[in-house]
Design goal:
Layout: H1 3-8, H2 36-40, H3 58-71, E1 75-79, H4 82-90, E2 99-103, H5 108-118, E3 124-128, E4 144-150, H6 162-171, E5 175-179, H7 184-187, E6 197-201, E7 215-219, H8 222-234, H9 241-251, H10 254-272, E8 278-282, H11 292-298, E9 305-310, H12 315-322, E10 329-330, E11 340-344, E12 361-365, H13 371-390
Parallel strand pairs: 2-3, 2-4, 4-5, 5-6, 10-11
Antiparallel strand pairs: 1-7, 6-7, 8-9, 9-12, 11-12
Helix pairs in contact: 3-9, 12-13
Length: 391
């Protein structure tokens, strides 16, 4: 054997006595087959088999299996982002003339996808009141194929009556998908309540370090899995095993991170109610939050994301006051080690039910910094805004 060949072919090494706690990161485009016959029959392996790196490696299968177990689902499909998870849940099941229902507090790009992509292709959508509960039955028409849920809304924090919505949708023959990113399967399991799809942005709590983009779709029925996988395959969508390996590392600590962030967020939300500059605190664990009774009934705890509605009089002071922040980073997303804060304006985007507040929403994600340090910075921000309120 010549040296150039030795450069290409790797020697076989013994794995006897080697056992790692880490999941190996298998990178592959080409999958090697044992013989010509197995290559010719590769498509007989199905979606669970290995045919080409585009369609998964043992690394991706490990994360898919782990998320399926957490959700109590049949299968999980990994896609490149949370938004991709939502769109790939809609695309296989909606045809021209069909309709999807989305809540008024839905993640903004979902509404844009319905308006800018689905609508020009003859697929309609209806925006419904997030707090509609069983009355959604009145909105479901013969053409409604999918009802979308996001609970709580990750800006305005309304908690939906998920079981009631699912019962009404099922009675009308519609599928139900739920964006469960806020809760993770540790706090809420949509499939256990009858949902067909549980979707999550794994970039948040699963990844846990603000350094990856990944989404998941967990299904309750193998046929739903098949239909989604067909669309994912036909569009050539794949995820990087390196991103997946980061998620596999992050998911190991997700339980302690979510529990810590949830405890701190509840404590902060309760304290922030006392400030004159705060018009309303939107946290599912507080009785004042819309749908608190559903959170208390259906969820096993709190996550670290919540919102605060500021009084409109301080809008001009907010930008300068936020420049003093050193611990809270200004940015989108949540669920990482670093605490985040983001000013949001939602009033103009509500179409089904008017948003009752004129002030800016501050969306706050609690990270892993010392709670006293975080509180000191939040308190300083609120005191600065209060000084402008009284001057």
């Amino acid at each position: 054997m010549h040296d150039l060949t030795r450069c290409v072919l790797h020697p076989a090494v013994s794995h006897v006595g080697f056992a790692s706690l880490a999941v190996p990161t298998y990178r592959a485009s080409t999958i090697r087959y044992e013989d010509a016959q197995s290559f010719a029959e590769r498509w007989d392996r199905g979606f669970d088999g290995y045919t080409y790196g585009l369609h998964g490696t043992p690394t991706t299968r490990t994360l898919e299996g782990q998320i399926s177990e957490l959700h109590g689902g049949i299968r999980t499909i990994l896609v490149p982002s949370g938004q991709a998870a939502i769109t790939f849940t809609m695309l296989p099941f909606l045809r021209p003339g069909d309709r999807v229902l989305i809540p008024d507090h839905v993640y903004g790009p979902v509404r844009q996808f319905c308006c800018d992509y689905l609508a020009p292709r003859g697929i309609g959508h209806t925006v419904y009141d997030p707090m509609i509960g069983s009355r959604i039955s009145d909105v479901i028409t013969g053409g409604t194929k999918l009802v979308w849920i996001e609970s709580p809304g990750t800006g305005t924090m309304e908690v939906q009556d998920v079981p009631a919505i699912i019962r009404a949708a099922k009675a009308k023959g519609a599928l139900v998908g739920c964006d469960n990113t806020w809760a993770t399967p540790l706090l809420f399991k949509p499939l256990a309540h009858g949902a067909d799809f549980a979707v999550e942005a794994l970039s948040k709590y699963v990844g846990g370090h603000s350094d990856l983009l990944l989404g998941s779709i967990t299904v309750s029925d193998i046929e739903l899995h098949r239909q989604i996988k067909l669309v994912v395959h036909h569009t050539g969508v794949a995820v990087s095993p390196d991103e997946v390996s980061l998620a596999l590392r992050g998911i190991e600590t997700m339980g302690v991170r979510v529990a810590h962030a949830g405890r701190v967020s509840v404590a902060f939300a309760e304290r922030m109610q006392q400030f004159a500059v705060v018009e309303r605190v939107l946290h599912p664990a507080l009785p004042s939050c819309p749908g608190h009774e559903f959170w208390k009934r259906d969820f096993s705890g709190s996550a670290g994301l919540f919102s605060v509605v500021l009084k409109p009089e301080v809008a001009a002071q907010l930008g300068p006051a936020m420049k003093a922040l050193k611990l809270f980073a200004i940015g989108a997303s949540w669920g990482g080690t670093r605490s985040l804060i983001a000013p949001m304006a939602v009033k103009a985007h509500r179409t089904a039910v008017p948003w009752p507040h004129d002030g800016t929403i501050l969306r706050i994600s609690i990270g892993l910094e010392d709670p006293d340090d975080l509180w000191n910075e939040l308190e300083s921000l609120l005191r600065t805004l209060e000084s402008g309120l009284t001057s």
